[in-house]
Amino acid sequence: MYSHAVHLLGLPLSVWNAVFLISSLSGCLILRRSADSGPTLGFFPLRCLVSLYLIVLGAQLFAYAFDVNTSLRPPNGISYAAYYLNPLAGPKTLYGAVVLMPLAVAVARVGSAMTFARALDVWTPALFTVVAGARLGCFLQGCCYGVRSNSFGISFPVGSPVYYVQLHAKLITEGSPSLPVVPVQAIEAAFLAIVAAVTFKLVRSPRPITCDGALFCAAMAAYSVFRFAIEFVRGDAERGIYGPLSTSQWIAIIVLAASAPVLTRTARA
Asked: For labeling, which of 29, 70, 104, 139 is most exposed (least CB within 10 Å)?
């Protein structure tokens, strides 16, 4: 694991922000290649930045709404504008980026010849590239960790979030690495990278799927099934829990229900 503060091009950044910045640049390159498979997107850099900005705000909004230690109301002394419009103002819940991507794409494609449904498919590989990198950042920073496991766990270093949680619970002594926990961040990053690679290959095929928008829905459904399952081995306390399931599991159920009609229509075509 790396320290929480790194310097990238002379800028002091948290390790998560540094990895996210790199993954965002990678996502823009993927989007450029994906966009070559459809109508020309004029003003591409602007469209890419607009979609990325809105997707980040979506992830931040979900953190405000559903994480345990955050609130939809800004802290004292911070304006609503700064709280909601500054992409670095708060933590991120990656599911928010995935769920709110259609809104970001709808805004980013304004004025282009590309249909909204096709744009969703074109943006899908880039989205999953970015969130895969973001989840890798979680792994390097030591947040969003899994349950304790001596068989399948790894230890995070002093200064990581899991270290402080276990230290506060008196499970470890000061200066000791954390007890082993399941690296769910790395597992999720690998899955997201696979989704990004598969959707990139499909979106550049002549006509891989009979219905525009189906590729996006299929990727959303696959991630939702995966996310529902992996939430059972998450161990961090920041995520919201409502009844028997976590926030992400409830969202996964909603996403699967919303995706079902498109996937069913595509399967019958």
From this structure: 29
